[in-house]
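Quick one:
INPUT:
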């Protein structure tokens, strides 16, 4: 994966992603691999040590998630997912009007009373 793609996925800046990868590289979790077709492109790969840490954390978080699902109940989890999806739909419907209102407010600010 390229740093630019990683930064997009994590919603962080490229410099922040680069610093994060450098830190992981120092710990032996990642390595940088130059593209064979384009020398300007550098891919980030997990090392064996990085893969091991990833698998360990996935197992840990999977166990916690399964416990949460067991305690809350699958039906309620499904309801939560449905409500989150519905909320996102409504946000997407309202967003254009909200952006228009914000733009209008910037163009025509309301004066404060004296």
């Amino acid at each position: 994966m390229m740093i630019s793609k990683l930064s997009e996925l994590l919603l962080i800046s490229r410099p922040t992603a680069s610093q994060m990868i450098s830190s992981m590289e120092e710990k032996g979790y990642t390595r940088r691999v130059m593209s064979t077709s384009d020398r300007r492109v550098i891919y980030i790969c997990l090392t064996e040590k990085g893969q091991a840490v990833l698998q360990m954390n996935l197992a840990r978080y999977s166990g916690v998630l399964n416990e949460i699902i067991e305690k809350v109940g699958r039906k309620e989890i499904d309801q939560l997912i449905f409500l989150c999806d519905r909320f996102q739909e409504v946000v997407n419907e309202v967003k254009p009007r909200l952006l228009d209102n914000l733009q209008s407010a910037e163009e025509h600010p309301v004066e404060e009373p004296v």
